[in-house]
Write a structure and sequence with these properties.
With about 160 residues, this protein is of the alpha+beta class. The chain has 2 domains: about 50 residues; about 110 residues, Alpha-Beta Plaits (2-Layer Sandwich). It is built from 6 helices and 4 strands. A 4-stranded antiparallel β-sheet has the order 2-3-1-4. The protein is elongated. The relative contact order is 0.17. The model has no long low-confidence stretch (mean pLDDT about 85).
Length: about 160
């Protein structure tokens, strides 16, 4: 008998305060929706970070003909300077951190630039001579970027080292 009394009192209270009941239900629903969305976003961000870390590269931009960088004072990068950079990347303290090294010539960089910016003004006015040749270095551990950057930055023929993280 007491359960019936309690349930009838609950029913009367809900009927008397219908607007308050609806507002509590809506606020609870909205709050739980935000918690669920935040949880899903956090999971997705974690997965995306893992996916992008697999694609991380360090780009070593080599000196073009008209660079104002101190390491480019002697003009565009020479074959000897490229050999020195490659030798630096083969050093025992750096080699285990590097998965693969790709060389991109000015012509290849220009073709990539035109593909990315097809139909835009810049794609029509730039030339291959405006591009930098570069080394693209895929790392085994992207958090060790600074070790690789320290080895090649400051070398003659290197204009800039960029972390693609």
């Amino acid at each position: 008998m007491r359960i019936q009394f309690v349930l009838s009192e609950i029913g009367q209270g809900l009927r008397r305060n219908l607007s308050m009941t609806i507002s509590v239900v809506l606020v609870t629903f909205v709050s739980l929706t935000f918690v669920g969305v935040a949880s899903l976003l956090q999971t997705q961000i974690g997965k995306m970070k893992g996916d992008w870390y697999d694609k991380v590269e360090v780009t070593v931009l080599l000196c073009p003909t008209d660079s104002s960088a101190a390491t480019c004072a002697s003009g565009p990068v020479t074959d000897e300077q490229k050999a020195e950079i490659e030798a630096a990347l083969e050093q025992p303290e750096v080699k285990p951190l590097i998965e693969k090294v790709y060389f991109e010539s000015q012509d290849e960089a220009f073709a990539s630039f035109q593909e990315r910016f097809a139909g835009q003004f810049w794609a029509t006015v730039m030339t291959a001579a405006d591009m930098n040749s570069s080394y693209r270095i895929k790392l085994t551990d992207p958090t060790k970027y600074q070790v690789v950057a320290d080895v090649v930055s400051g070398k003659q023929g290197v204009e800039e080292v960029q972390d693609q993280r």
